[in-house]
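Progress against Task 2.4 (sequence-to-structure conversion) is shown through the following example record, which the project officer requested during the mid-term review.
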Amino acid sequence: MKRIEFTGKAKVQAAVVGAAAALLVLCGVTQVTGIGQAYQCVRINGTQAGFVPGDMDVKKVMQEARREISLETGERVSVELDWESDTARRPFQKFLSEDELKEVFKDTIREENAGGMRRAYTVAIDGYRANFSTLEEVEKFLNEVKAPLDETGAYRTEMTATDWHISGIMTAVLEETASETDARTIPEETLADTLSSGAQSEFAYALAYAQANPSAGAYQTGILDLEFVENVRVYENFVAPEELCDIEEQVAEVTKQKESNKIYVVQSGDCLSVIAMDHDTTVDSIVKLNGMSDPDQMIRDGQELVIAVPEPDLQLLLTMGEVYEEDYTEEPTIIENDSWYTTKEVVHDEGTVGHRERNDVVVYQNGMEVSREMIHENIMVASAPAVIERGTVVPPTYIKPIAGGRFTSGFGRRWGRMHKGTDWACPVGTTVYASCGGTVIQASYSGGYGNCVVISHPDGRMTRYAHNSKLLVKTGQQVEQGEAIALSGNTGRSTGPHVHFELYINGSAVDALKYISY
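Structure tokens generated for the chain above:
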């Protein structure tokens, strides 16, 4: 055979061709061996299962493995695998194919099933868990939880499977028990039999007729609805025998009051003692949870407070129909007076108290009433409404007469005499504003008040601004709320530069801080 010799240039070309061929071969196996690209390291239950390409959907492979095991056994797979995948990069790393990874998952599931564990049904309610041997035990457990509120067994536990969920999770709800005879409807022949049996009173007839002819105005009594507040999930599981639960013990546990922190938004008129009473907690508990200095610390509308509320793991929402009698008063008849302020009203007729029977729909959560609505009433003695004349004009408002300033003295006794105003210390020349619109009735020097402005307001009230260095308005001038009327100073009987502000109602000085809005 003739030997072929390559020149230098030909050798280079041959080397390039060989490298390209090798690269093509290597690229052809990148699906089973990595050459430096990113890939995933899969771990199952803390053990490394192998490496797979970066674009492989590991979760989908795991779900397919569960599906195939379920088809093999004819049962749902309840084993929960703890798996994770991390991105890594190392050349020439052998990869598992999807089928190979699937087999690893399937082997792990088989091992978990064969580990001496027992099939169980787990009830999950937020952080609560309880394991029972059968679905019948689960139903008995939930039925006993609701039994104290449903002594007649009007509701039963129903579990609905969510077929789309691979873990076979079911939702437990309460459904009304269907009776063979609806008590609200009575056939005509039954109505006739009832009347012919001697129950001839008007009441018996009315009751039978109402039962046979239900209407929107009919009374509703007893349990109208019953449901779980929390989401109750049930799923198949494998647990150690000692992890199976006793029904009675778990009924006691799941209905036991446990403290959990809630956010409460302070409403107008609230105080800590009322909030504590309404939520079955203590003032001391609220103070500690919110880092407050003492129980007398002021709270404001809209403030959020953390409160510890005793609640069980599983709560019931009970809707009841209740009938009772009460005294009542009709809503008053209002006569609007467009020349009066809304703060003024005159009662022309006191009205009378009536008496009625009422039917309410009441909702209870965890035994506490959360809503009440009257759906039917029977007036026994009619109430005559009161007649009230009320103003419609919104009264003027009052604002702080300066921007900023340091509060130094309030309304009340000071140095053995009555201090009729409110003082804010501020530099000389600070702008003083009209607290409310009105007519200037004084703008002059006035003894101990120094340079003083007095304004009369449309609601009959009067304000005084004292110790000013300069007056910016004149007597008889009309001013608007917030209009500049003076510059602060230290004139008259004054201990330093400040604004002295007084408010008079019906000719008497009052604490201005109770009437001004900042």
